[in-house]
Amino acid sequence: MRWHWTLRLVWVAAALGGAGLAAAGEPQTVCTITVNSADEKASFQRHLPPSRYHFVELVERGRSDWLDSACRARIACDVLVISGHYDGGHEFFSDQLDVREYLPVAELERVSCSEACPGLFGRLKEVYLFGCNTLNPQPQSSASAEIVHSLVREGHSRKEAERQLRALNAELGESSRDRMRHIFKDVPVIYGFSAVAPLGPIAAAALDRHFRVAGAREVGQGHPSGRLLAQFAPYGLSVAAGLTDQDPQAEVRRDMCRFADGRLSDAEKLDFIHTLLQRHSTETRMFLDRIQRFTATLDPATRRSPAVAQALGAIARNDAARARFLDFARHAAQPEARVRMLQLARELGWLSSTELRQELRRMLDELLARGSVGAAEVGLACSLNQDDSLSDTLAPEAAGQPAQAPSSDSPSDEVPHAAVRACLGSPAGRSRTLQALLSPHEAEVQVAQAYLRHRPITDAAELRQLARGIVGMGPSEAQVRALEALGRHYVADRDILEPLVRLLLQTRSAPVQAAIAGILIRADLRTIDSAALARQVRAERHMLLLGDTLADALIQRLEQRPEQRVEQRVEQH
Known about the structure:
single chain; alpha/beta; 31 helices; 9 strands; globular; three-stranded antiparallel sheet
């Protein structure tokens, strides 16, 4: 029942906001931002009469500053139609290989917050967002686990901690819906999808049906269309109104704009970050993504400038904020979040390089002592130790010291723990992890796969031995994962390729065949008679379960001349 009242309030707000609409005889400007399908734009153009609606495509192919170009051209939009895949937080993009244009949400925030181009979106009456989750009301922040964990540590019950998290999410606008309301401030009507949006042709067909009934009379009027919402009801179309200065989240928008406003200097933004770091740690955590994105823009020359150096110095000297932040980081529920916060502490001058290294060592020690470790933690450990800077302390056997054998009931005896030790330079852990690649258990193979993604095999004999073991596995999801791990290596050995070819033609598992085909397409085939293999694949194509597209790609690759294969490998790398 509550949604009826919400929709009623939106209608009332829209009606009040529409009092200043342009005269009926004045043409309205429909701006389009088309970074993927043009189907939705074409539907609007088919049904809106040119005498009343003037269309302007803001995207200019081949240039990245097309929003600024629109500002310089003094374009003022009454209606905005954005068509593109939406990743849920950072950008609208295309799935078409020949399209390079995209729309960063940060750029929309800059335009909205800086008021450098108030005319472009200043008189908007309606926004149509044709992308998945553009008005999803669910919080997008990954901070939830850390915040609940922190509040429980402070003495709150879990129920109370979760209640405070919901209130914080609502207050700080951590959903896609809230972010769009922040960007399109004062716009009376914003349409978008609360979940998966329909593909361009399907959305265009629904628009065509709507326009044939309602015509153009509901476009650009500044109030929600019940007919349009009903037409898109199967796809979860929803409507919202942009924030106003009287909205409870208006102060949150001002905070968001302090990061995006191009009129503020780097030093002024750092002063604002300093104020955020003095708030409760849970609120600071909600701004972690924005703080990290900003500090990443500070190159060494910028950091040395007097104003920025002074602002950074003030943060570095704030011992109370430092203590709160590091305590929160050390107790973060997710290792990945803990790493991000520790790295930010280094950027802010709260940790030296040596201290950061010590903090990461402590975290990985704690990780090894945990009972549950997964592929994500293995990947994190390997990525942190890419330069082997953490190996000397955490993997004593790597430095020639004997390693103690774990007890059979010790967490370190599990494959994920062995893989973490392997990431940290342990020969014994590496041996155990590679053995796990041949396990019948998919979870163990997944862990080994995560390790090899960071530490691929470079010894040809070792790779051959491992490939023989993978070929000998029974058809299963575990074998598919093992083949995928093998395919990430440079495969050019005849003793690997020929067994893979035999398995391709013998197995009746479609996923196994597809994984092998993927390896052969990327492999260096100069050591085998690929032309003969191509003839064999053609002859037995009816027995393969690859599907036409993948089978055609494999045959085409096998039939390439040697010089073409070399050119293709150069392009891939």
